[in-house]
Structures are given as C-alpha cells and as structure tokens.
Amino acid sequence: MTRATVTRSAVRADLAARREELMETIRQAAIAEFSTNGLHGASTQAIADRAGISKTKLHYYISSKEDLYIEALRHIVDVWAELFHGLDMQSGPEHFLRAYIDRKIRHALDHPEVARMFTSEVMRGAPLLRPLWETSRQATITAATVIEGWIAAGLIRPVDPVLLQFNIWALTQHYALHLSEVRFMLNLPDGSSLDADQIVDEVTELVLQGLRP
Amino acid sequence: MTRATVTRSAVRADLAARREELMETIRQAAIAEFSTNGLHGASTQAIADRAGISKTKLHYYISSKEDLYIEALRHIVDVWAELFHGLDMQSGPEHFLRAYIDRKIRHALDHPEVARMFTSEVMRGAPLLRPLWETSRQATITAATVIEGWIAAGLIRPVDPVLLQFNIWALTQHYALHLSEVRFMLNLPDGSSLDADQIVDEVTELVLQGLRP
Amino acid sequence: MTRATVTRSAVRADLAARREELMETIRQAAIAEFSTNGLHGASTQAIADRAGISKTKLHYYISSKEDLYIEALRHIVDVWAELFHGLDMQSGPEHFLRAYIDRKIRHALDHPEVARMFTSEVMRGAPLLRPLWETSRQATITAATVIEGWIAAGLIRPVDPVLLQFNIWALTQHYALHLSEVRFMLNLPDGSSLDADQIVDEVTELVLQGLRP
Amino acid sequence: MTRATVTRSAVRADLAARREELMETIRQAAIAEFSTNGLHGASTQAIADRAGISKTKLHYYISSKEDLYIEALRHIVDVWAELFHGLDMQSGPEHFLRAYIDRKIRHALDHPEVARMFTSEVMRGAPLLRPLWETSRQATITAATVIEGWIAAGLIRPVDPVLLQFNIWALTQHYALHLSEVRFMLNLPDGSSLDADQIVDEVTELVLQGLRP
DNA sequence: GATGAATGAGGGTTCATTCAT
DNA sequence: TATGAATGAACCCTCATTCAT
C-alpha cells in the first residue's frame, strides 16, 4: 500500500464514521419527535432542529420523512430483539420472568421515547410496522410453546400463553408510556425519574404471584 | 304564555338539540382523528370529512382545533369518572376489582379511540390534560387509602397502593391501545373484535391471584 | 318565489359567473406558461403571477398543477374540434382545403400559445394527452376516407390520406410554433404580427397545386 | 523529444480524448432532457443520471445548466449547417429539393430530440438561440436569392422565397416533433419507427408538384 | 481531476383560520 | 345559521450550485 492509498482509505473510513454518527443523531431526534407527535404531527423542521442541523441538511441524509420513520421503527424492533438475546426461557418461569421484567422495565424507563413511538404507530393501526413484525410473531408463538410447557410441568397455573405475554408487555411498557401521568399522580416534579427498583419489584411480584399454581 | 312564545321557545329548544347532536358528531370525529394522528397530526379537514360537514362549518362550531381537542379530553375524563360512579370500593377487593376490571376492559374495547387519544396526550407530556387532572389525583389518593385499609385488614398482601392502580390501569387499557398488535400476533383479521370475556377473565385472575395475601 | 329566494339565487349565479371568469383567466395564464416552459418548467407561482392572483389563491381554485395542465389540454382539444364544426368535406377538396387552411392558420396565429402548449406535450411523448385523443383518431380516419373518395373521383392525385393530413397540419401550425424564428429571419420587430393573408395564400397554393391530379 | 515528453504528451492527448468523449455523452444526455422538458423543466440531476455520472461530476464539467443548454444549441446549429454542406442549390430546384428533403427528414427522424430541443427553444421566443442565428439568417437570404433565380428562370412558379423555406422546414421537421402523435393516429406501437421512405416521397412530391410552374 | 457534503432559494401543496355575504 | 372565498404560514422536498478535501 502506498502512503496515498492509506491516507485515502483512512479519510474514507473517517467520512463513513462521521456519517454514521450523524445518522444516529438524526435517528434519536426523529424518535423523540415521532414519539411526541406521531408520523403526521412531527415536522422535518422540528427533527432537524433537535438534531442541530438545517432542514436541508436533514433531507440530504434521509430520503423522506416516512422513510426515516420506518427506519426508526426498524431500529426499535432490532434493539428490542437484541435486548432479550441473552435471556433463556429454559431456566424456568421464575428465573426468566424476574430477568425479563427487570430488563424490560429498566430499558423502557431509560428510553421512554422508544416505547412511545412504538405505541404511537400501533395505535394508528401499525400500517408501517406490519412489514417488520413477522419475526415478532414467530417469537410470540415460540414463547407460547415454552409457557405451555411450564403449565404442563405444573410450574405455573393454567393461563392463556399469548395473553400472558400481552399482560406482561402491558405492565412493563406502561410506566414509560404514561410517565407524565405517573409523575402527576405521585406529585413528582416534571423531569424527575421514577423509582425503577420499586416498579420492577411490584410488577415482578404481581406477575409471579399471579401465576403461582 | 302566548302561543307565539310557546312556538318560539319550542323552536329554540329544537335548535339547541340539533346543535348538541352536531357537536356530539364532531366530538366523535375529533376523537377518532386525534387518537389516530395526535393533536398536531390531525387536520380539521379530516375531522370535518369524518363528521360529514365542510371545514368552514366545522370552524363555525368550534373555536379552534386545540379547543376542540381539550373539549374532547374533558369529555373523556368525564365519561370515565361516570363509568365508575356505581362501583363501591367498600364492598371489598375481590368484589370491587372484578367489577372494575370487567367494566374497564369492556369499555376500552368498545371505545378504543377514547383510550388511544388519552394515551396519545399523556405520551406528549399531557400539557393540555393537566388542568383537568386534579380530580383524578384526588380519586387516586382516596383509592390508595382504601387499598391500604384492605392491606391492614389482611384482605390483600402488602403492595404500593398507587402502583397497584397503575398496574391495573395498564392491564385494562392495553388491549384497546394495542388492538392492531394483538390482532396481528393472534392472526386475526383486521376488523375483528377480541374475545372480551377471555381477556377479562385472564386479567382478573392475574390481579386477584397476584394480590392474595 | 319569495324575494329572499330571488336574491339568494341571484347571488349564487353571480358567484358561479365570477368563478367561471376567474377559471378562464387562470386557464389562459396556465396555457401561456405551459406553452413557454412545459409542464415541469412552468411554476404555479408564475401562473399565479400571470393571472394576477396569489399562489395560495391559485391552489384554492385548482386541484394540482398537473390537473390544471390536463384541463388546459382538454380545453385546447375541445376548441379545435369546435373550430371545424362548420366545415364540410363534402364540398370537395378545393373549397374545403381553402376554408380549412385559412381558418387553421389564422386561429394559430391569433393563439400561438395554444399551438405551442399542444406541441410541447406531443414532444414529451404526449403522456397526458393520450387519454383525450381517441376522438381525434376517429376524425383522422373519417377524413382519410373522404380523401380517398377525392382520389377515386380524380379530384386530387393519389396521396397517402393520413400523411396528407399531417402535412397540412405541419404547414398550418408551423408559423405559430416558430413565430420567433420567422420574425428573426424576416427581420421583424419582436412583438410584430405576421402577414396572415400572405401565409394563408402561400400555404393554400402549395397544397392545392401539390395535389392537382 | 525525450521519451518522458512523448509519454507525457500522449497522456495529455488521452486525457483530452476522454474529456471530449464524456462531454459528448453529457451533450447527448442534455439534449434528450432539454428536448423533453425544456430549459427550466430539465434538471441537472436527470441529465447526470442519463449520462451515467453524479450530479457533482456533471457540474464539474459544465459551468452552468444554461451554459450547457447554449452549448447544445450551438452544437445543433453546427450539425445542421454541416448537414447541407455538400448540397448545391445550383443544381436546380428538383435535384436540390429532392436531396435536401431526403436528407433533412431522415436526419430528423434519426435524431428527433435534436429537432425537439430546437423547437422548444424557438417556442420560448428563442432568447438564447438568437446570438447563434446570424449565420442562419444570412443562409436564408442567400437561399432566397437562388430561389428567386429559379423563379426568374421559370423553373418554379412564383412563390415567396422565404416562406417557401419555412414551409419546407415545417414539412421536414414535423414528423420528428410530433412522433408520438403520428404513432398514435397510425396505431403504431410506442417505440416503433416511421416509414421514412414513404414520408420522404410524399413530402417531396407535394413540394415539387406544388412548385411546378 | 473527482467526490461527498452542504446550502439558500424555490418547488407544489396543505394548514388552521378569517372574511364576506 | 351557513358557506364560498381567501390568506399567510407552514408543510415536505428538490433545485442548481458551491465547498472542502
């Protein structure tokens, strides 16, 4: 390799890194805006402002608002899938559910915009999320089978294995979605964060006790 | 009263009735649009279309989009308050929770747009809902006191009385908010309705079992 | 009819008239712009300026730029069809062609933008004109039959009856399309009009002599 | 000359050739786009796409869109001048006109974009073509003198010598400009080519017969 | 010579709202 | 009460062009 080649490829790598960094900034800004105002309610101007760039520059990096929206959804789905990679349902209901609920609630409270954007899309009827959902459906079915195994083994009482998943999902997402309501009812100041430990505890106990055979 | 007076006041009453009827149509249209696209994403044109009137006529009957939004929120809060008027917490946890969960889930599944618009506003930080929330906060506190009584009486195991309310809220709202997701995961057709009986059962059992002392 | 009814319907008629007048103004402005810059090159701002209204107002009266363009094309096709309603091919080639060429050239020179917008669309491949062309095709076929009759009767020499129509079309449109070129080559000032009489004469003679059996 | 010099100048010549080749590609792409959408309607992006290069690269090779447009016009004018270099009007009207019409129509049908771009500019009023037109005007005047000689010699009937040129121009350009219309009226498929022989024949006969003394 | 990044101006169109009758 | 007309601001996005390397 000549020195020029080295330099050039180094420059190229640098450009790619810069670009990726900016794309990440844009994605975060987009998720924040979309989670607050929805696809139609969010403006590219607001996203650009939040990302600290001009609207023109934003449009240089995305192909369209809808595309950015879809890309963000895809990102969310990927991140959630990754979040539970290490968890093993074979370890039994108690161990698994403790770990799952813990991880899920903490992640939701750390990134409430993510949960909100997702729910916002689902509330619209999920027209743009649907193409990305097949994997989730498979995962749901697989999990249902395992849960049925738990029931058969007498580890938990008989429940509908799919509705159980929805119920846990509801409990673990709720605090991120309704942060403003929870804060208001608890008389907490606006920017304050909730007591994640306590929420994890309460939800975990409710579920585990609720499933006891 | 002269005959003319009678006639005139009858006409006036008729007009008022017509007006109220139209306002109700507009409110429903507004809730449907706001629940789908949020405050910023919903257009007065779309609301007018849904209500079957012209945009100009819509604006003749409302003072502004935001005002219509607030009015709809107020309506939602009122309806929910009314929904639980007959329920008596003094009847004990089991009886009360069975009735509450049943009524709440069925109402949510019958009017999913209502739950969605509410959550949409909450996810935004509830800027316009806050002024209407004081009553709810009082109700939450009152309910917490009753729950603490249940705990003291050994009717349920010790839990945080406010988080319990949130958890129940989460479980009873979730199916209305995430209808499209639930349908997708269960492979149900698009317009289909869920099995309310089953959901009520599963949620009720989870909560009651989860609270057993 | 009550007086109020009279007044109201009079007002409505007035509004309709105003509207039609404005639509005509807009159409003329549109044809002028489209003939100069084509569909893509013309801006709604320029059309609005030419019509003496704001861009917003223009968009209140049209549904889209493309729609306005199509509407203008339709108008052109209709006007041309009407232009030759009175002419009777049964009167024989000489009489008919004299009248046709005369009317066509004068109309083209009086409304050169019309001919230009049409040719502009045809040069693009006529994607938006095509749906409006079926009638013209039928008319071309009908005319071809009559011309074949002329040939059979020995009134004109044998020619291809469709190409003859194109050739006449070419000769009668050319001066409107290429006004600027003709003016330049003849050293005429910019706004000047051509000697229609002379052009009609020269073209007529060329065609009639050219067809002599 | 040293060997290094040879090499260097060879490289330079190669570069120049490459450059000229690319410029030709760009010019063709430009003519195609300008002929379809006009100066304002054509985008440098579309031209770059058609030329198979990036927009940035295109702008590296041209100074501006308008300049490219002018350069293309100049090219067209030059090509047309060259096209008739070999033709000698002194050979008399029949021989000359047969050759001219033949060459003109075939060239137009082979390069319809060229004829279209030219007419597009003329229809706009030829603002950018005018500076390139002086030579054409001289040629027109010269040709008119020759034609007047033909008339004086009784070779053709008396006609206006300039309008005759326009009429021939009209007939020989028309089929290239209105290809889509001709195809439609003749029910020919979209990409099909016309029967050049027949068109040349028909136009030639019309003109020669039309000029017979 | 070549290329990714950037930009101010402008593209068509819709917005919530007000005006005029 | 009701409605067509009108509007300034904002919408998403593309434009021709320049910058920086």
Characterize this entry briefly.
The first copy, chain A, is mainly α and 213 residues long. Chain A has helices at 3-41, 44-51, 55-61, 65-83, 93-110, 112-123, 134-152, 161-177, 179-185, 196-211. At the C-D interface, helix 1, helix 6, helix 7, helix 8 and helix 9 of C face helix 1, helix 6, helix 7, helix 8 and helix 9 of D.
Architecture overview:
The structure is a homotetramer. With about 210 residues, chain A is mainly α. The first copy, chain A, folds into 2 domains: about 60 residues, Arc Repressor Mutant, subunit A, CATH 1.10.10; about 140 residues, Orthogonal Bundle (Tetracycline Repressor, domain 2), CATH 1.10.357.10. The first copy, chain A, is about 75% helix and about 0% strand. Chain A has 10 helices and no strands. In chain A, helix 1 packs across helix 2 and helix 5 packs antiparallel against helix 10. The longest helix of chain A is centred in the first third of the chain and has 39 residues. The mean pLDDT of chain A is about 95. Chains in contact: A-B, C-D. Chains A and B meet through helix 1, helix 6, helix 7, helix 8 and helix 9 of A and helix 1, helix 6, helix 7, helix 8 and helix 9 of B. The structure holds a DNA duplex (21 and 21 nucleotides).
Short key terms for the protein model shown above:
homotetramer, 2 domains, mainly alpha, about 210 residues, globular, DNA-binding, Tetracycline Repressor, domain 2, 10 helices, Arc Repressor Mutant, subunit A
What's the structural blueprint in terms of helices and strands?
The structure is a homotetramer of 213-residue chains.
Chain A: H1 3-41, H2 44-51, H3 55-61, H4 65-83, H5 93-110, H6 112-123, H7 134-152, H8 161-177, H9 179-185, H10 196-211
Helix pairs in contact in A: 1-2, 1-4, 1-6, 2-3, 5-6, 5-8, 5-10, 6-8
Chain A binds a DNA duplex (21 and 21 nucleotides) through α1 and α3.
